[in-house]
Amino acid sequence: MDMDPFQMFDDWFAEACAREPSDPNAMALATATPEGLPSVRIVLLKDHGPDGFTFYTNKQSRKGEELAANAHAALAFHWKSTYKQVRITGRIEHVDDATADAYFASRGRDKQLAATASDQSRPLPSRDIFLERIAALEEDYPEGDLPRPAHWGGFRLIPDAIEFWEGTPERMHHRILFTRTGSGWQEGLLYP
Ligand SMILES: Cc1cc2nc3c(=O)[nH]c(=O)nc-3n(C[C@H](O)[C@H](O)[C@H](O)COP(=O)(O)O)c2cc1C
């Protein structure tokens, strides 16, 4: 068959972007502590290709701290409109500063304010404190872009396995697993 998993992802993602009513780039990101305690949450895919799958977040968040201690993660996409799922596992690298700066600058002021003001995943004694932080930032930066805070950046998952699952109405679902083999990819089917 000799399929390219990245081309296959591109095709499935393009189909999801055309059909999914919202956030076709939403994916579950699973991380774990070095002891193996897992956690999972949704983040948005912001870039992808043979170099990996990129998302942005607060590096001091729970996921950021888990990735700093254990740089392995898993992703799962589920597109209801296409009845398809993609699962990806691999190791995590940081996106370089220039790329993170450019993406942060493209996000718009409201998102820049919120990302800068948020101590993501830390206890927040009251919502007013968060709003006051945003108001203070608006005074410090009355207009234009904010600089990317050091605690916020991008992570790229370099896949070692990518599985494509396609549902069928009669429940004889189809699964293809691609596993990295040094320079290439080995491809095989899995029982559904
Ligand atoms: C649709 C959707 C998209 C989200 N996208 C992101 C994202 O790209 N980056 C991010 O840090 N959090 C995103 N979140 C919030 C995360 O799910 C999560 O609440 C937050 O990152 C804190 O996770 P943590 O405490 O496990 O680190 C998103 C949530 C939803 C529902």
CATH class: Mainly Beta
Overall 3D form: elongated
CATH architecture: Roll
Biggest sheet character = 9 strands, antiparallel
For the secondary structure, the number of strands is 9
Average the pLDDT over all residues and give the rounded result.
97
| Bound molecule kinds, no repeats | flavin mononucleotide
What separation lies between the terminal Cα atoms? 19 Å
User: What portion of the residues fall into strands of 2 or more residues?
Assistant: 35-45%
Identify low-pLDDT runs: none
The arrangement of helices and strands along the chain is HEEEEHEEHHHEEE
Helix % is 25-40%
Mind telling me the C-alpha Rg?
19 Å
Looking at the structure, the CATH topology is Pnp Oxidase, Chain A
**Class by SSE composition:** alpha+beta
Full CATH superfamily name: Electron Transport, Fmn-binding Protein, Chain A
Number of continuous helical runs: 5
Q: Give the number of domains.
A: 1
Give the secondary structure arrangement, pairings included:
Layout (H helix, E strand, L loop, with lengths): L4 H15 L6 E7 L5 E7 L2 E3 L2 E7 L3 H8 L2 E8 L4 E11 L2 H9 L3 H9 L9 H14 L11 E15 L7 E8 L2 E7 L2
Antiparallel strand pairs: 1-2, 1-5, 3-4, 4-7, 5-6, 6-7, 7-8, 8-9
Helix pairs in contact: 4-5
Task: Describe the structure in your own words.
29% of the residues lie in helices and 38% in strands. The protein has helices at residues 5-19, 62-69, 97-105, 109-117, 127-140, and strands at 26-32, 38-44, 47-49, 52-58, 72-79, 84-94, 152-166, 174-181, 184-190. The chain has 192 residues and is an alpha+beta fold. Helix 4 (109-117) crosses helix 5. The chain contains five helices and nine strands, in the order H-E-E-E-E-H-E-E-H-H-H-E-E-E. Bound molecules: flavin mononucleotide. Flavin mononucleotide is lined by residues 23, 26, 39, 41-44, 55-58, 61-63, 120-121.
